[in-house]
Amino acid sequence: MSEHHTDESERNLRKTRRRFLQAAGAAGAAGLAGCAGSNKDTATTAGDDNNGGGGGGGGTGTQTSKDELPMTDRTFVTATADVPKDMQFNPYGQKYPERIALALFENLLYVNEATSKFMPGILESWDIGSETVTLSVRDGYHWHNGNEITAEDVAFKLKLEIYDGAAIGNIVNAEDVSVVDDSTLELGLQRSVSSEVFLYSLKPIALDTPRDTFEEFLDAYESDGEAPGLTELTIDEPNGSGPFKLVRAENQEVVAERFTDHPDADNINFPRMKWNYLQSNQKQWQALRTDTVDGIDNVFTPSNIAESYGDHVREIPMPANWGMGIMFNHEHEHYSQQNVKRAIQYVIDRQKLAQSAGSKMHVPVEVPSGLPGNFNGSYKNWLGDSLSKFDKYEPNTDKAASLLREAGFEKNNGTWVDAKGKTLKFPYKIPAGWNDWTAGGQSIVQDLNDFGIEASLNPSQSYWGDIYGNQNYTVAGLGWADGKVYPYFTLNKLLNGFRSRTILKFPREVEVSPLGQPNGSKRTVNLESEVKELAGLTGEEAMQKTQELAWVVNRHLPMAPLMEKLDQSWLTTDNWETIKKNDEDAIVDWPPYYLPREGKLTAKPK
Q: How many other β-carbons are positioned within 10 Å of the β-carbon of residue 129?
């Protein structure tokens, strides 16, 4: 994230680092990933011919109309990798169950990650101007204690997020969040931003901080800029805002019941959700194979395992807009050198890598430019006519050798060493237990060893602490993209965000030649100012600046983008009616949580 060099910005940077540590912990557990109307107005009928054919067999994929939807006594059973007895519901603390929270709390808005189409949540409409944004709160929401949800609750949450270092704080100051009336709030903008940048900054925010529980912390932030004790607060009995209310969290399961005062409750015809504690991929695969769950939000499943499921188990592929990349430590004597990083990119066969990781769910990055969208080629729309000017880094060991020699390396007894005789090593650290990354990492290590770089694959149980805590790494595997198809976010992450500054330690200014002219006269690029400029651009201006910054990534490789992945969500259709696979509501995180709100995951009568 962008920071000014002030005491306040330093506090924000520390807060942001804490948020990344929390996210990293959650990722480790999960590694087993204008205006709008109401949800009901924007929902499409799953049985529409335009939605295409079904996938995975079983079920009709059609929906019963709301007036005809009979209530059942079915329980939707899914899985969690979070230990039920350890979880708590303070989103700023540790052991917060991110996926279960999707049922218990309502997001401000939702987004289709394939198209960047935004759908209402708590917010039913938005008007984004050059200086202010007006947000409208949908009627009918209540906290689980029965209190009505109003614009005051949304304003409270936004202020808390801004003080805690969330991305929205780059756009809006806390003092510029004001309540107009019970259903309307107004935000003053620090600067003009594109609608995508603004709305994506709201995307991670859920209404999960009731004022009576968190008010003391906002008061502390407003009085002295810090909120001691916020991360230590534990909440065992959450006051939620979503369509399901927590009943109990026991040793091996979590149970929640349908909250009848939720505005979409009439779309939900089953009274309970239950999460079984299944902490590994293998246990979740077995649960799908033996019909002990009705669906799982996301679990990587190799083709041979998926083939063992019954025909009634439907796979819903979801674009992740991220995938494996190489994170270089720019304080390292070798990997601070541009030529070394570029040589590494030339050596690795990305096509073979994706096949090793699982070709069904992974594709190679075609042009390492910092733009996601390799599954459908959407990145090409942003690069336009400049696409041919970018280096594709197709495997070429001759080019790699030439770059290393330019950097002062030579090959000694088949191994590359620097001018001091020090071996060029590649100790590739990855999270332990990530099956696809282990297979892909073995492909990377083989390519580099064959070329003469001393490479090793190092799965680590303490990976997240090593990277975000101790920063103990030379090279490591981590997602290179930001999970959003709109290019600003990944370019910011690679060139100017928290990870770039603090973990990669990538320089704040770089020398770069004109786009498409690698031997041309170089200019100095201040990354913070250029990325900040991109946030406010639209149309042709946004495309041009995107291309310029993508060229910086292509030449300097703050990370080496290698492949992009699809996530795999699963639903069963023997006891459940659900969507055709091409219904765009399927591409909203995550089907077991979003589809019930839209009446697109319903129980069949027993």
A: 10
User: What's phi and psi for 412, nearest 5 deg?
Assistant: -125, 110
Contact criterion met (CB below 8 Å) for 605 and 70 = yes
Nearest to 558 by CA among 456, 475, 436, 452: 475
DSSP secondary structure of 54-91: -SSSSS------GGG------EEEEEESS-GGG----T
Question: CB count, 10 Å around CB of 145?
Answer: 10
pLDDT in tens, 380-428: 999 999 999 999 999 999 999 999 999 999 999 999 999 999 999 999 9
pTM of this structure: 0.80
Which residues are within 8 A (CB) of 25 and not within 5 positions of it... i.e. 6 or more apart? Answer: 94, 464
Give the pLDDT band of residue 444 (cuts 50, 70, 90). Answer: very high
Interval 511-562: pLDDT, tens: 999 999 999 999 999 999 999 899 888 889 999 999 999 999 999 999 999 9
- Tokens of residue 220, six digits: 């502390």
Closest to 464 (Cα-Cα) out of 433, 424, 487, 442:
433
Residue with tokens 């509501």: 585
**DSSP three-state, residue 24:** helix
Q: Dig out the tokens for 421 from the structure.
A: 């005789």
Q: Which two tokens stand for residue 528?
A: 């913070």
Q: Within 13 Å, how many C-alpha atoms sit on residue 11's CB side?
A: 13
Q: Which residues contact 344 (CB under 8 A, 6 or more apart)?
A: 326, 400, 426, 448, 453, 560
Distances (CA, A) of 603 to 66, 543, 564, 572, 578: 13, 45, 34, 11, 9
Residue where the block lists tokens 């009085």 = 223
Longest distance between any two alpha carbons in the chain, whole Å? 78
Q: What is the pLDDT of residues 38-89, one digit of tens each?
A: 233 332 222 232 222 223 333 333 444 445 689 999 999 999 999 999 999 9
- pLDDT of residue 5 exceeding 50, the answer is no
State the Cα–Cα distance between residues 249 and 101, nearest whole angstrom: 13
Mean pLDDT of the chain: 88
Q: Which of 113, 209, 561, 74 is closest to 350 using CA atoms?
A: 561
pLDDT at residue 67 in the model: 55
What's the rounded Cα separation, in Å, for the pair 483 and 479? 9
Q: How confident is the model at residue 591 (pLDDT cuts 50, 70, 90)?
A: very high
